Amino acid sequence: TEITEKLEEVVMIWTKQIRQVLVESEQIRREADDVGPSAELEHWKSRMSSFNSLLDEIKSSRVKKIISILQAARSKTLKQWKELDGSITIAANEAKDNVRYLYTLDKFFGPLANASPVMMEHIPSLMNTVCLIYCTSPYYNTSEHMTSLFLKITNQMINTCKTYLHEG
């Protein structure tokens, strides 16, 4: 039981740390007012990397051994652990899925940033792709995500126009 108690303490520390990562990942992002759509892709790539690293750690043999010992001891700490494991898996899947969908927009980000203000040729394809993401993505199709994306696309268009006017 002494070993079980020590292992439960370790799992409780991990639980607290994982909860902190989840809480931080859900906080509202502070971004510059003029950030473009590439920042959205970078945000989700970074989040995917973080959660995948966390999943790798959770699935490591060291952690699995500790969890199996606690399962054999019928520890009550495992209920919280399993819930967190599920939450991390969902967050990792969301980030991976969002990166996959946002990569379909990546081909528009360069032309949008480097075009003249007459960028209308890119807009219909860009909007069709955004619509496709909204209709098919299981995670990214929220008004919060779409608003953030459209804001960044609009920012990029405004920045492109400003650059054009300053150079012209």
UniProtKB/TrEMBL annotation:
Organism: Elachura formosa (spotted wren-babbler)
Domain Dynein heavy chain tail per the UniProt entry, residue ranges: 5-166
One term under GO cellular component: axonemal dynein complex
Gene from which this protein is expressed: Dnah5_1
Molecular function (Gene Ontology), one example: dynein light intermediate chain binding
Record-given protein name: DYH5 protein
Pfam families listed in its UniProt record: DHC_N1
Lineage, broadest ranks: Eukaryota, Metazoa, Chordata, Craniata, Vertebrata
GO-annotated biological processes: microtubule-based movement
